[in-house]
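Why does residue order matter? Because the sequence determines the fold. Keep that principle in mind as you read this record.
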Amino acid sequence: MDSGQTIFIMCQLVMGAVLTFLAIMLWSRTRDAAWMLIIIGTIIAYIEIIHYILELFGMAGGGFIQIGSVPLSSFLLPLLRMGFLIAAFSVMFVRGFRKNK
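Structure:
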């Protein structure tokens, strides 16, 4: 692993940790469904970063269940993150649509 890849990994870890910490701090202050879904999506994004790094170092195995040649965890984590964000934006959209009526 070269120094550029090491810096990239460290930046992802540090920025992801700060983002997740702030998301968790916001979670304790809000009860809004849309914000909670965004926070969950943010936490899953950090889990995705950790999973990628563990795979890079060979610590996260390919998994027993695969979809084609892709491990199930590598397949589901991005879908979960996007699913929670889609749900959050949908809640915001519906809420805004109802206000305008």
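Residues 3-100 form one domain.
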